[in-house]
Amino acid sequence: MKKIGIFGLALRNLRRKLVRTVILLVTVAVVTGTLLGATAFITGMRNALKIGTYRLGADVLVVPEKNEAQAKSALLAGEPTTFYMDRSILEKVQKIEGVKKATAQLFIKPTSFTCCYNVDAFLIAFDPATDFTITPWLEKRLKKPLADDEIVTGSSLPVIAGDTLPFFGTPFTVAGTMEPTGMKFFDQSVFMTMKAAYEMAANSKTKSMQPLELQKDSISAVLVQVQEGFTPERAAIRIEHDVDGVKAIASDEVISTVRRQLGGLLKGIVAISLIVWILALLMMGFAFYMIVNERQRELGLLRAMGARRDQIFGLIMTEAMFLSLAGGVTGIAVGSGLLYTFKDLIMRGLKLPYLLPSVFVLLELVAGALLFAILTGVLSSLLPAAAASRMEPYEAIRKGE
Questions:
Q1: Could you give the CA distance from residue 139 to residue 233 in angstroms, rounded to a whole number?
Q2: pTM of the predicted model, to two decimals?
Q3: 3-state secondary structure of 213
Q4: I need a labelling partner for 231 at 20 to 30 A (CA). Which of 137, 144, 148, 162 fits?
């Protein structure tokens, strides 16, 4: 006669009540999928905020006072926008105490993007002589300055180095593509030199059906790095005091805005996850109490045949572990698939940056979610398993008849 071990007996018992097993498995899967999705979601947004802020490289962003909302929308949601102020603003900002470096950028919303009609590109022109945001990347990756007939594109634009893209009637060659940051301000942008932008605007009057109205001394924003010993908030106050008609947005202010949004979102996700987990624990605990009650005769016979108390305890715990493991793997697979499928839709709705965590971080999250699933099974079956192990053989057989 073939001997059946605890693992084989546990699997046989789970198959015997297949509907109940499936329900418990789905319960664990929901808890695990919710946990993994929530943690990956929050980790991705924090990752994008950290990398995007580092890439921006500016402590303060100076824009026209009336265009503050547009500037914040461009930074956080990558909304293409166009607004201008006079270049003299840059010269005034450079003279303010506490300003270490200052450079100008020009924002242009293109009328069309001929290579990809479903992507809203954002044209950003920078001054290579003073820039400290794009130039370091060019020096590290391209090993050369950007020519006036070249552009660098963000990672979300489906183009490769060597492609030619026309804007306002002027063709540009793609010199390179930047790494993903999770912020549309970078990932869906096209970077060109300030000189190229002015020449493009001048040529558009004869080469484009929709000319670009742009004065040569126009800029959209001034990016500022502050001196050591000055905070971005202090520098922003000085800039607004000394320069009329501008709004100085500290990078910490942008980050804190996103953090406030993340904080509220995180509290909601944690609350929902906690409620789902408690319900799962109660449901599984009740189910295992029913399992033990239904199988009193069987458990009593096992004890009468020589099974030790720890073996009975191990049998119930093994069933819970099998359920938890299978439910955890299912929840991880479904949760990951849903997050990957709908992350763009969610990001568009929330208008927050998102960058998928690295493979190493994802593996950590998956391992954590799987351990959490196993813990759920262990906690829910601990008391029923202990009760089953304390049964006396005769009493268990008599009650189970």
A1: 30
A2: 0.64
A3: coil
A4: 137
